[in-house]
Amino acid sequence: MKAIRSPERINSSDIIFLAGPIQGTWNWQESVIESLKDLESSFVIASPRRQKIDRKNFTDVTYNEQVDWETEYLRRAKIIVFWLAKETKHDCKRAYAQTTRFELAEWKLKYESNMTKFDLIVGIEPGFSGERYIRRRFEQDSPSTFICDSLESVINFIKTRITLKEVQKLSKRSASRIDAHIEAIEQAHRDAANSTLQFGEKKFPEFKI
Questions:
Q1: For the ranges 51-65, 115-129, 151-165, 178-192, which has the lowest average pLDDT?
Q2: Which of 43, 50, 71, 158 yields a CA-CA distance of 20 to 30 A from 13?
Q3: Which positions ≥6 away from 88 have C-beta within 8 Å?
């Protein structure tokens, strides 16, 4: 399976977006990519974590590019994965996972209101701050959403969703081929019927004996 990292781009409608903390935690995004790299699929993983980043030279231009990239690929995604990794390195100048919490609320609401068609996978690493509140809100608003307790479980959910999506695509293609075949047969019948009517309407000379 292919993967891109911000700000890389790809022309594909089958996107899996990896949403979750980047700053202050371990590189869980690469663990997901590594676990799925041998899976044959048309889906592409989009990771917002850049392979190389210089925080000292992270200008406003770079910041806007990052936010715009994340927004675009979130909107294009057919599967959005939230892994709420716990904090491993504290930064007193920044609230941990501040962007992730905003995005989770935004896409949770869109998922519940069915505003856009996408699958939502959520996992919370034990020790993530605010875990109890997030779990309770999902229980209240989206009880059908299962929350994973481990990254391994999240990866297994991703594999399952990919399989379902691939099956759905094959079913649609088969249905389209069947519909096209039926239409061709019906058109052939219509053409044959029209030919018969035209033949029947022709006037032939009368033969007198």
A1: 178-192
A2: 50
A3: 24, 25, 26
Residue 203 has pLDDT above 90, yes or no: no
Rounded Cα distance between 60 and 103, Å, is 20
Pinpoint the alpha helices (H) of the chain. 28-36, 60-76, 98-113, 131-141, 151-201
Cα distances from 51 to residues 4, 6, 63, 162, 200, in angstroms, run 10, 8, 15, 25, 75
> Coil, helix or strand for 161?
helix
* Best CA proximity match to 87, nearest among 32, 48, 49, 131: 131
98 close to 42: Cβ distance less than 8 angstroms: no
The β-bridge partners of 147 are 122
Q: Which residues are CB-contacts of 94 (< 8 A; sequence separation ≥ 6)?
A: 23, 24
**Distance of alpha carbon 106 from alpha carbon 127, whole angstroms:** 23
Residue 130's closest CA among 94, 98, 89? Answer: 98
CA distance 66 to 54: 13
Digit-coded pLDDT (tens) for 7-25: 999 999 999 999 999 999 9
**Which amino acid makes up residue 5?**
R
